[in-house]
Design a protein that fits this description.
It is globular and about 55 Å long. The protein has 12 helices and 7 strands. The longest helix has 17 residues. It has a single domain, classed as Vaccinia Virus protein VP39 (Rossmann fold, 3-Layer(aba) Sandwich). It is an alpha/beta fold and 269 residues long.
C-alpha cells in the first residue's frame, strides 16, 4: 500500500464532512443492514460483470461498499476488489463477511487511490448519498481511460400497498428523507463530463422476509436508525403492527418484498 492507498493518510487529508444521518444511522444499523437488506438478482450481477469486463487480472473499485452485499457477488469473477467505505461499523461487517478484498476507509468525494489505478468502479445502493459532481470527478481520476462505471439500486415497488405503507411509516417517523428520489442520473452524469452516455436496464427482484426481518429492515434504514431511542422504537413498533395487521401480511410466516433492480453504466472518456 502506498501513496493515497494509505487509509490513515486518507483519514487525515479527506476534509469533507459525511452526511450525519448516514454516519449515525449506518453505524448504528450495520448489523441490521447485513441481516435484513436484500441481495441482488443474478442477472443484474451478470450484467455488471459483463459491462465492467470483470475477471482475473482486473482491478475494480466498489465505492461505499457498506457491509459488502454487492462486493461478495463480484468476487467469484476473480477480479481484484478494492472496497471503499467510510463507516467503520459497515467496514467491520464487510471484513467479516467477504474474504480476499482490500477494504479502505474513504468516501466517493475523496477516494483513497492513485489516479488511473482501477479498471472500473461500481456503487451499489449508494450513489444517492454522494456529492455527485465531486464523486464523478474522483471516479474519473481513479478509473483508467475507457474503464467503466456501474451504478446499481434496489428500488422498493411502492405500487404494492403494504410496501408503500412501510415506506410512509419510516419517512413520517424521520420527518423527511435525507436525499431525494427520482433523480435523473443520465443528466447528472452528462453534466459532470468525462463519461459517455449512461445506459440502463431494469430487473424484477424479490426478497423473502419474515415479520421480524421486516422490522429489522426498517431498523437498517439510516434515517430510522439515526432517530433517538424512543422515536426509533415507535417506528419499529408501527412496522411490526403493519406486518401483523395488513391483509397481505397478517398471519404469514414468510413473504416476498418486491423490488426493481436498476443497473446504470457508462464508459470513462
Amino acid at each position: 500500500m502506498s501513496g493515497t492507498d494509505d487509509p490513515k493518510r486518507f483519514a487525515a487529508e479527506a476534509g469533507l464532512p459525511l452526511n450525519r444521518t448516514a454516519v449515525v444511522g449506518f453505524g448504528r444499523g450495520a448489523h441490521d443492514y447485513e441481516q435484513s437488506r436484500p441481495s441482488y438478482p443474478a442477472a443484474a450481477v451478470d450484467l455488471v460483470v459483463e459491462v465492467l469486463g470483470l475477471g482475473p487480472g482486473r482491478r475494480v473499485l466498489d465505492l461505499a461498499a457498506g457491509t459488502g452485499k454487492f462486493t461478495r457477488l463480484l468476487a467469484p469473477s476473480g477480479v481484484a476488489l478494492v472496497a471503499v467505505e467510510p463507516v467503520a461499523a459497515m467496514r467491520a461487517q464487510l471484513e467479516d463477511s467477504v474474504a480476499g478484498v482490500t477494504v479502505l476507509d474513504g468516501t466517493a468525494e475523496v477516494i483513497p487511490l492513485d489516479g488511473a489505478s482501477v479498471d472500473g468502479a461500481v456503487a451499489a445502493q449508494a450513489f444517492h448519498w454522494f456529492d455527485a459532481p465531486a464523486a464523478l470527478a474522483e471516479i474519473h481520476r481513479v478509473v483508467r481511460p475507457e474503464g467503466r462505471l456501474a451504478l446499481v439500486w434496489n428500488v422498493q415497488d411502492t405500487s404494492v400497498d403494504w410496501v408503500r405503507r412501510f415506506r410512509e411509516i419510516q419517512v413520517a417517523a424521520a420527518g423527511k428523507k435525507p436525499y431525494e428520489d427520482g433523480t435523473d442520473w443520465s443528466a447528472v452524469v452528462a453534466g459532470a463530463g468525462g463519461f459517455a452516455a449512461l445506459r440502463h436496464e431494469r430487473f424484477i427482484y424479490g426478497h423473502e422476509l419474515t415479520p421480524e426481518l421486516l422490522v429489522q429492515r426498517a431498523a437498517s434504514t439510516s434515517f430510522v436508525s439515526a432517530l433517538d431511542d424512543d422515536a426509533r422504537q415507535a417506528c419499529l413498533d408501527e412496522v411490526a403492527g403493519l406486518a401483523s395487521s395488513h391483509p397481505d401480511l397478517a398471519g404469514r410466516e414468510r413473504f416476498t418484498f418486491p423490488y426493481f433492480t436498476d443497473v446504470f453504466w457508462c464508459q470513462r472518456i
